[in-house]
Specification:
The complex is a heterodimer of chains A (about 270) and B (about 300).
Chain A lengths: L3 H34 L1 E3 L9 E2 L2 H7 L2 H34 L5 H7 L2 H4 L2 H15 L5 H25 L3 H9 L4 H29 L3 H7 L6 H11 L3 H26 L1 H7 L3
Antiparallel strand pairs in A: 1-2
Helix pairs in contact in A: 1-12, 2-12, 3-7, 3-9, 6-10, 7-9, 7-10, 8-9, 9-12
Chain B lengths: L1 H7 L1 H42 E3 L5 E3 L2 H8 L1 H34 L3 H11 L6 H12 L4 H8 L13 H23 L4 H9 L4 H29 L3 H6 L7 H11 L3 H30 L3
Antiparallel strand pairs in B: 1-2
Helix pairs in contact in B: 1-2, 2-13, 4-8, 4-10, 8-10, 9-10, 10-13, 12-13
Classes of the chains: A mainly alpha (about 270), B mainly alpha (about 300).
């Protein structure tokens, strides 16, 4: 028992150092953006902005390009999420509960979307889209973002369907319930929280997807992240980007926290092969 | 339960199984076809389009011209070099930062540990476009780092923004959560009892790390590194916004060649070269995930 005590003290000391360094590295950039969004004048070298205020919120929100990009992004993310759910959820059910030839190989083949360097893959897809005229169109961006959601929307729901209590389904069947009724009243309610989380994650990830939208959508399709890239490139007023960051990030953060509570952080790592 | 049912009704069970085969295949057909059309086919087509070039007489012939151009062009080579450098530095930094955090999280409990975990995982919830924006204001000229150094009376540091170190900082920030999560999951395979046994016979912490923990972590370390390398090698947003204009990483280079220069053949060549450099890591990644999961 002797070595136990110093080990605990060591761990705490290490923990304090790690916590301090991580706070500086992770939290500082976010605090800076948050402060910029609510400051009207912040000139070097002041540590605290000379003047706080909400003036830039109304200025940002009166820009038409901001509203156009916001509605386009919402329309895109909704379309992609619905399509992805319609295509992937039945497949996830089949992978989890049915036996058919090639089941394992087909399931693992979805890893292919993660096994290649992503931007190279996007360029290869763009090469195909160029030949069939999908560059700079709404549906071109939908398709390229849809591919990115496949693995998430299949792997997480598969786990959900596998975790459903089979004995309850069989009890319902023994009591004379039809298969569809069993699915609707027993299977779906148990799998629902995880599936909702997967849908939410897909929506948020699609909303912020920048690379595909930039490569395929330019110049006609300007989503919210693409608009923020142009704000950075053109170096117009600092606060515009800061306001957009805070405004967009808060709702997505709440959605992601919910998803994380349901799915559990470990599942992400497991899904990625840890 | 299932077994007893099929046992009682063998005939019905058999009919169900063969029926299920078709229903199952039909249900998975759409995503599998999408995968074939938008992942497999573009990769194959990128390779063939860059190797079999259309000739004046309408036929196509094997040609390495675009690859020869890439490797003889000094600018392309510089871009490849800076990409390899960034990938290597980020990979090393991620392990150097992620491993101590993962070790700490594995062997301690309490509010401080929860705080460290929360912070380490936090970047997962920050999209890279917002991160880029935040980092420009933090490490950029007259950014928050300069402000803080000035406030405590220290001289300014040379800003990493628009140098190769800019993307390194952003990519490490962005990839830290998954590195920590995957390493923590890997450390779960190291039983506490064997560590305590080694401590009881007087092994130093370093010795425990090297002889007990590391050998059981090899696979997990390799998967984590492979995954990080696949993500970093062809990253786009962070190097595009935080990195120098020249030389640029492969991601921005491909984008510029494709969109701004209107040169799909050379962009596809760059993509195939990126596939080539990452092939080993991709295969390793798929193989170990497949082995861990063993299918569905």
């Amino acid at each position: 028992m002797m070595p136990g005590k110093p080990a605990v003290a060591d761990a705490d000391w290490i923990g304090v150092v790690l916590a301090l360094l991580l706070t500086l590295f992770i939290a500082l950039p976010l605090i800076v953006v948050g402060t910029w969004a609510f400051s009207e004048i912040w000139r070097y070298p002041a540590v605290i902005p000379q003047q706080f205020g909400l003036r830039y919120w109304s200025l940002t929100l009166s820009r038409t390009d901001v509203w156009e990009a916001l509605f386009l992004s919402l329309r895109l993310a909704t379309t992609v999420t619905i399509l992805s759910a319609v295509i992937c959820l039945p497949a996830a059910y089949a992978f989890a509960r049915m036996t058919f030839p090639g089941r394992n190989i087909l399931f693992l083949s979805f890893l292919a979307s993660h096994a290649f360097p992503k931007f190279g893959l996007l360029v290869a897809i763009a090469g195909i889209f160029l030949q069939i005229g999908l560059i700079s169109t709404f549906w071109g961006v939908v398709l390229i973002q849809l591919v990115g959601t496949l693995m998430l929307m299949i792997w997480i729901p598969v786990a959900a369907f596998q975790n459903v209590d089979r004995r309850m389904e069989e009890a319902a069947r023994d009591a004379g319930a039809a298969p569809l009724r069993v699915f609707w009243s027993i299977t779906l309610p148990q799998a629902a929280p995880t599936i909702v989380a997967a849908v939410l994650l897909t929506f948020v990830a699609t909303f912020y997807e920048t690379e595909g939208a930039w490569l395929i959508g330019a110049p006609e399709i300007r989503t919210m992240p693409v608009l923020m890239v142009t704000f950075i490139n053109n170096q117009i007023v600092v606060q515009y980007g800061a306001v957009l960051s805070v405004m967009l990030w808060v709702p997505s953060f709440i959605a992601l926290m919910f998803a994380r509570r349901v799915v559990g952080t470990g599942t992400f790592a497991k899904g990625l092969g840890a | 339960m299932r077994r007893s049912m099929t046992f009682a009704l063998p005939a019905r069970g058999f009919a169900l199984a063969s029926n299920q085969g078709w229903v199952g295949l039909a249900l998975v057909a759409l995503p599998v076809l999408l995968l074939a059309w938008l992942i497999i086919y573009p990769i194959v087509s990128a390779v063939t389009d860059t190797l079999f070039v259309a000739q004046p007489d309408g036929s196509s012939a094997l040609s390495f011209a675009s690859y020869r151009f890439f490797f003889s062009d000094q600018y392309s080579r510089a871009n490849l070099w800076v990409t390899l450098w960034t990938t290597l530095v980020c990979g090393a930094l991620l392990l150097a930062i992620g491993l101590p955090i993962a070790l700490y999280l594995r062997f301690s409990r309490g509010p401080l540990s929860a705080y460290v975990q929360g912070l380490a995982i936090f970047p997962m919830f920050v999209p890279s476009i917002i991160l880029s924006y935040a980092l420009i204001r933090t490490i950029g000229p007259n950014g928050a780092v300069d402000v803080l150094l000035n406030a405590v009376g220290l001289p300014k540091l040379p800003s990493p923004y628009l140098t190769p170190w800019g993307p390194v900082i952003g990519l490490v920030w962005d990839n830290l959560p998954l590195t920590v999560l995957m390493l923590t999951a890997g450390l779960g395979n190291v039983p506490k009892t064997s560590i305590e046994a080694a401590r009881d016979v007087g092994a130093s912490p370093l010795r425990v790390l090297w002889s007990i923990i590391m050998p059981r972590m090899v696979n997990s370390l390799l998967v984590t590194t492979s995954f990080a390398i696949l993500g970093i090698f062809s990253s786009f947003t962070l190097p595009y916004l935080l990195g120098p204009a020249s030389p640029e990483m492969m991601g921005p280079f491909m984008q510029r060649t494709f969109s701004d220069m209107n040169d799909p053949v050379n962009a596809l060549t760059q993509a195939v070269i990126a596939f080539g450099f990452c092939l080993g890591f991709g295969i390793f990644y798929v193989r170990s995930v497949a082995r861990n999961r063993g299918g569905v």
